[in-house]
Amino acid sequence: MKLYYSPGACSLAPHIVALEAGIPLQLEKVDGKAKRTESGADFWQINPKGYVPTLELDSGEILTEGPVISQYLADQMPASGLAPANGTLPRYHLQEFLGYINSELHKTYSPLFKPDTPEATRTERKEYLKRRYQLLENVLAKQPFLLGEQFTVADAYLFTVTNWARHVELDLSGFPALQAFQKRVGERPAVHAAMKSEGLVK
Ligand SMILES: N[C@@H](CCC(=O)N[C@@H](CS)C(=O)NCC(=O)O)C(=O)O
Fold this sequence. Notes:
The protein is built from eight helices and five strands, in the order E-H-E-E-H-E-E-H-H-H-H-H-H. By secondary structure, the protein is of the alpha+beta class.
């Protein structure tokens, strides 16, 4: 399998999941602006959506959308515990978190990365993020991971997007449980290895 990624982007989440699950993954870096992969391929031809993460299966079939890719990888190694079994209530709770992170956090960060976003929009988006983070802070004040004691794909995703806070100068000092979570997850060997291979840490 091959994961198309950009360093530190949302593709870090499935990258972490693959390493946590022990799934061998070929990596191909994508220049998000030029839409070219590091081997010179036209990325639009690989994924017409033009974004990472994109997973190419060994059959050549393409899978897109981070929450789906992460669940697909987790389901290859059910014993990893990275996703509860399909059809169970905990799996729906996992998808509840994935949907929340995808639509309420991830896509709220996106305009903050654009230099031409007006200051008023930046302020409003940061306030929105803080409101949405409060719910997760309350969860993480009671348990180490979003679903309880077990690290799952939702934690990989939350860790990935929350890492963006310092790049966009979002002050998360009012969220101590979330900050402890970031530290805890960042210290996991698979998480560190994924970040190192993307050149994010030494
Ligand atoms: N709906 C997609 C969005 C993916 C996405 O926003 N990817 C960003 C990086 S975090 C990207 O590749 N942006 C480049 C672009 O849209 O041109 C998902 O959840 O996987």
